[in-house]
Amino acid sequence: ENFKPAQVLNSLKWPDSHVTTNRKLHFSIAKDDGDVHFQIDSLTGDLFLSKELDYETASHFLLQVLIKDYNNNPPQNNTVFLSIDVEDQNDHSPYFQDDFVVIGIEENVPVGTLVYTFNAKDGDGSFLNSKIHYSLEISSTGENPFLIHPLDGTLTTAFPLDREITRSVILTVSAADQAINLTHRRLDSLSAKILILDINDNSPSFTSSPLSCVMEDVELGFLVHRITAKDPDEGRNGQVTYHILAGNENKSFVLDKITGLLTTAQFLDREIQERYSLTVMAVDEGSPALSATQVITINVIDVNDEIPVFLNQLYETAVHENQNPGEFVIKVEAVDRDAGRLNSLLQYEILPGAGEEKFKINSDSGELITTASLDRETQEVFIIKGNGCHDLGSPSRSSTAQLHLTVLDENDHNPLFAKTQYQISVREDLEEGSAILDIFASDEDAGLNGQVTYSLIDDTFGTFAINSVTGSIVTTKALDRETKSHYTFRVVASDCSTYLPRSTTVMTVLIQDVNDNVPKFEQSYYKASVWEGQSPKPDIIQVFATDFDSGLNGETEYSILSGNENATFLIDPTQGILAANTVLDHENTSSYRFTAPSHSLVLLASDRGTPSLNSTATVLITVLDANDNPPVFSSPEYHVHVKESIPVGSHITEVSATDCDAGSNAEITYAIISGNDRGHFRLDGKTGSVDLMKMLDYEDTMKFTLIIQAT
């Protein structure tokens, strides 16, 4: 279409080229097919363009060319049809209707949401020259969250949007045609501003520390902690208020819901409670509101207000004679309820008194040792008065205790066991007469002083015996761990000297459990009651089942075996607490009686042994009435007509009301609260009967309006 006028497009030639030069031909375009765009040289047949072409106006021409041959007599006429196709040139640029658009999109739309459709036009006629390809550029250096379809111009979300990260995006949208020659391609562009609209999609987040400390002697109203939370949303979506959800059952603290200031509401005592864990909620004012919780730990800092206390006011112990200095005697111990390195750090000392020079106490540990060898024949008993301890607080606090020490007599050598104590484990189903351990003691003495015999002291409940010569310990009857799970007794090794020197060791026998006991409920039938209208999961009753086995064999799990088809109740599998799983209504259900098969709630207690053993119990739960229904009169108005002449004391009418509640909650009392100022009528508070108390006078009062209340 960009071919210039006056240029030869084509030349028509006579087929017989070898005689063409000798022929006299005349070329012309038929008038009916004539077009101002084309002309033909009548002598040579050259076709010229006489006017510029426009593909978008006309893309095809069909010309009828007349050729007259004067070499024939008469002249011969011929006709040639010439088809001309106009090729399109990319002479139009794509264009948008607007130079700048503003688009709003909510931040919570899913990926792939249509944001906008761009529509550019191109005046070219051929496919590639008018085919538009869209592209996208972002003005900032950040990630582009949008995607444009190159063919249809639809702008969609390519990534999740977040207004709190990106409030708006400015895009440059380009539309380019697809001319084959890349240098001939044309384009247009516009700017689009995408506004990300806020949605309440951010919960408040706490910025304050979850840890705070306060001295235990602070005054009421003392500022303990400032709770802060931020919400990046806008407007009401980002306004935060604060509330205590849990941990403040004794109302020790008050939280300002606007400022987040947490102050004391009661006096604190670290020795009663040294730590508080408050569950605090920060909630925004969006719709729906979003919230976050934080557990704030408040440590109560100690003040030295407690006196050290010995575990015993009187300590009694014994020590052998002839022992070297430094022999351990006893460890005394005191506790101080205060905390900290100084307030609870105790120092022990022996106060001056008779015999105190033979002993020394470790000031830190409270261990008492000898400083000299003791002689029982010289002094058998020491009474050490005034063992004292004090803390290192300011001011320091102290207390005292007393020690009675007995010096034990001994031979030069005693029989000695290999160990000071033994511990073995045996199964409870061990057969009677089985040997469990061979024990041995040696004595460095000779003769009778070194000949050892064995015996048992302490009560073994007739379960064990020992061979006095070999030291073999055997069972004398069947074991039952549930009757006694362990035995502790001393084995004595004695020599046969005149003075019978001996030594002992502690023998501990642990009985290993066998799953031979069924969990057993304390009762086979329970009765319980619960108030109607309580929030879901109020505790109703706690059942207990006892399994005398140990470990997994004795661990009991609770479940509801039957009678709970509607899941009205649930039970804690470890604690056996039976609770309502829904709000109960006395008026709809007076009781859940678990005796009929269709309503029988059977609780199952199972142990975790292999195989598992179990037992059952039955429960009857009564739903107690709460006064949640007001009395309702049988009629909102009562109309009564009486003659003025009726005598005083006459029955006028009777009102009645009903209450859906039960018991005392349904007992109704009636009273006149208005309209009986002159006392013409009396109302029976129990029956609702209205009687005349004064004479009536029609001329004085034609109508009385009494307002009666039922409570």
From TrEMBL:
GO terms for molecular function: beta-catenin binding; cadherin binding; calcium ion binding. SUPFAM superfamilies: Cadherin-like. Its main location: membrane. The keyword Ubl conjugation does not apply. InterPro entries: Cadherin, Cadherin-like_dom, Cadherin-like_sf, Cadherin_CS. Keywords: Calcium, Cell adhesion, Disulfide bond, EGF-like domain, Glycoprotein, Membrane, Repeat, Signal, Transmembrane, Transmembrane helix. PROSITE patterns: CADHERIN_1 (PS00232), CADHERIN_2 (PS50268). It is found in: Membrane. GO terms for cellular component: catenin complex. One of its GO terms (biological process) is neuron projection development. Gene3D superfamilies: Cadherins (2.60.40.60). Pfam families: Cadherin (PF00028). Residues 1-96, 105-206, 214-310, 311-417, 418-521, 522-633, 634-711 form the Cadherin domain. This is PCD23 protein. It comes from Urocolius indicus (Red-faced mousebird).
